[in-house]
Amino acid sequence: MAEIHRQLMLFGAEELRRNAAGIGNRQERQRELDRIAAASAALGEPTEDDLAFSHSGLCQTCLPHARPASNDLIWQRNSGRFHLMVSPGVVRGQDGRAVRVGVPYGTRARLIMIFLQTEGVRSRIVSLGPSMSAWIRSLGLPVTGGPRGTIQAIREQSLRIARCEFTLQWTARSETGADETIIRDQRLVSGLSLWHGQDEGAPWQATVELTREFHEHLREHAVPLVRDAIAHLKDNSLGLDLYTLLAYRLQRLEQPLLLRWQALAAQVGSETGRTSHLAQRVKAVLPDVLAVYPDARVEVVRRGLRLLPSRSPVPRTLVNGFRVIEGQTAAVRPKLSTGG
Length: 340
Hints:
Elements: H1 3-11, H2 13-20, H3 26-42, E1 51-55, H4 56-60, E2 75-79, E3 82-87, E4 90-92, E5 98-100, H5 106-120, E6 125-127, H6 132-138, H7 150-163, E7 165-173, E8 179-186, E9 189-191, E10 207-210, H8 212-220, E11 222-226, H9 227-232, H10 237-249, E12 257-260, H11 261-268, H12 275-291, E13 297-301, E14 304-308, E15 322-325, E16 328-331, E17 336-337
Antiparallel strand pairs: 1-11, 2-3, 3-7, 4-5, 6-10, 7-8, 9-10, 12-14, 13-14, 15-16, 16-17
InterPro entries: RepA_C (IPR006881)
Protein name: Replication protein RepA
Organism: Paracraurococcus lichenis
């Protein structure tokens, strides 16, 4: 249990808020107040409506944090024997020529991906809500226009997600005992409307259809998350990556593991970032991650993160239509792996 949860149990949220009021910097004070609120909510028991989901492969590896230098870039991340490659798709440009739109990146892309996967474990056809503004708000974002507003950002990241191809490659042990390389090339969705000129408050009938291959694979390898945790971390792409990584990894451990900075950089780091820079960023955001994952047992050490066996952020007893079998949630509804 993180220190903030121990303090909450000892002194209560009101006392912690009073102490936070004495922090001099306004921005730091607000961040501490937000962390206290998120940690308080995380101590409660989530319900089935509080659940979110992500594919286990996308919990182990991440998308770019910032816009790649080139739209032609093939993005690659690695986690042990698992490899993720994201290839940018093409569209017809204004001049009539085919142009690459680039791979998805940043917090907006992550929120869209988690939304599609959360709804996708229940149905291959995903409704985006009664209006574009309602959908954007369901992602936990304000509805803002202009070149830097959320409307334009969501349109751009939706296009990138719809057109790119995800290659999942991993090495598995065959029945004969030999290593076997498995490769899956998958688009996430079959199509996606971009709503150009759509009034953000106007009614619509927007749906997204997941590809059959990804939908089936997602149902077998979905990792349960908590919506409130995603909401608290929605403005920090590294925070989202660390939360989903820990939600997948910690519950699978049987003994402590040192996740070295170099290995973590290959999973969730930037393409050219130094490990020392990543270590600083992880240390800065980790308190927010642990605030929304009370059972996570993680220690920062000189060479990386020391991970200890921990309970999932979602109780295994949260069934309501599911039954737990050998550490996996097989279902009357879609199969949801507690480990991936």
